[in-house]
Amino acid sequence: GGKLLDVEGNPDSPVSGGCLCPKGSAIYGLTVNAGRWTNVKYRAPFCDHWEERPLDWAMNRIAHLVKETRERTFVRENADGKRVNHTLGIASLGGATFGIEENYLLGKLMHALGVVSLENQARI
């Protein structure tokens, strides 16, 4: 693949006039950071070290744990019999480095699962 050389603003933008916002300014450092992990790391409960795992393993594990947690904690009706269809067993924290589209899709997924504990790092 290619290598990121620089990040610049759009000089034709009527909003920014070519200047980068703080997120745009920081994105270069995020991608070229020598300490950035580029593969999946897993630390088992009570373990003192990280293990490298395949991406497929991580995706399947996340899917399994989300499904199991949602099934175990999903509430269809409250004590008054009112339909609520939610789970308090899963929470989501959107990242400040996510773009608008990524945060939108993450929110849609969480709402579809019935997750009500949603927050975004950019707001905290």
Could you please describe the fold and organization of this structure?
With 124 residues, the protein is α+β, with helices and mostly antiparallel strands. It has a domain at 54-120. It contains three helices and five strands, in the order αββαββαβ. The chain has helices spanning 22-32, 55-73, 100-113; strands at residues 40-42, 51-53, 74-77, 83-94, 115-120. The strands form two sheets. It has a three-stranded mixed beta sheet. It has a two-stranded antiparallel ribbon with strand order 1-2. Strand 4 (83-94), helix 3 (100-113) and strand 5 (115-120) form a beta-alpha-beta unit. The longest helix has 19 residues, at 55-73. It is flat and about 55 Å long. The two termini are 35 Å apart. The relative contact order is 0.10. The model has no long low-confidence stretch (mean pLDDT 91).
Task: Describe this structure in a few short sentences.
This protein has 124 residues and is α+β, with helices and mostly antiparallel strands. It has helices at 22-32, 55-73, 100-113, and strands at residues 40-42, 51-53, 74-77, 83-94, 115-120. 35% of the residues lie in helices and 23% in strands.
